[in-house]
């Protein structure tokens, strides 16, 4: 009987966690999954400001600052694509994921950000 109770509790917790992701309209992944998602065709969108992006970003990423998304500027984005949303620490990416998801875009939020990224980066020089 105790085993059944533990299994029941585990199933309920699992279903609750899945429901929370569904309510947000997107999933959240760790940094270790970014390149795999990118290899699968998703586009990395770095929502840091232009200067931060220029200092170093994931190769192939595009820059759409959160400040621009808040203004409704989404001309560079296509609703047919999947976007991996990343920032410096994970806070702005969540806000950007909320905005884009509500706007009908297919997004994957990254729980951490470039401050924790250990992979290669590309820098832009002015």
Feature tags:
single chain; 126 residues; alpha/beta; 41% helix; globular
Q: What would you note in describing this structure?
A:
By secondary structure, the chain is of the alpha/beta class. Helices cover 41% and strands 15% of the residues. It has five helices and five strands, in the order H-E-H-E-H-E-H-E-H-E. It has helices spanning 2-24, 34-39, 50-55, 66-70, 91-102, and strands spanning 27-29, 43-46, 62-63, 82-86, 106-110. It has a five-stranded parallel sheet. Strand 2, helix 3 (50-55) and strand 3 (62-63) form a beta-alpha-beta unit. It starts with a helix and ends in a 16-residue tail after the last strand. Residues 8-22 have low confidence and may be disordered.
Described by the principal axes of the CA atoms, the overall outline is globular
Tell me, rounded to a whole number, the average pLDDT.
87
Specify the structural class: alpha/beta
Radius of gyration computed on alpha carbons: 17 Å
Series of H and E elements:
HEHEHEHEHE
Largest beta sheet: strand ordering: 1-5-4-2-3
Strand content: 15-25%
The total count of strands amounts to: 5
Helix content: 40-55%
What is the CA-CA span between the terminal residues? 67 Å
- The parts where pLDDT drops under 50 for at least 5 residues are 8-22
Number of helices: 5
Largest sheet, if any? 5 strands, parallel
């Amino acid at each position: 009987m105790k085993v059944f109770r533990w299994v029941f509790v585990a199933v309920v917790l699992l279903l609750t966690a899945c429901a929370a992701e569904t309510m947000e309209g997107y999933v959240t992944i760790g940094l270790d999954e970014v390149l795999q998602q990118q290899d699968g065709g998703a586009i990395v969108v770095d929502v840091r400001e232009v200067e931060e992006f220029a200092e170093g970003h994931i190769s192939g990423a595009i820059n759409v600052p959160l400040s621009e998304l808040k203004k409704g500027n989404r001309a560079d984005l296509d609703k047919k694509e999947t976007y991996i949303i990343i920032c410096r620490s994970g806070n702005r990416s969540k806000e950007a994921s909320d905005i884009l998801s509500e706007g009908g875009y297919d997004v994957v939020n990254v729980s951490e950000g470039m401050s924790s990224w250990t992979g290669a980066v590309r820098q832009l020089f002015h």
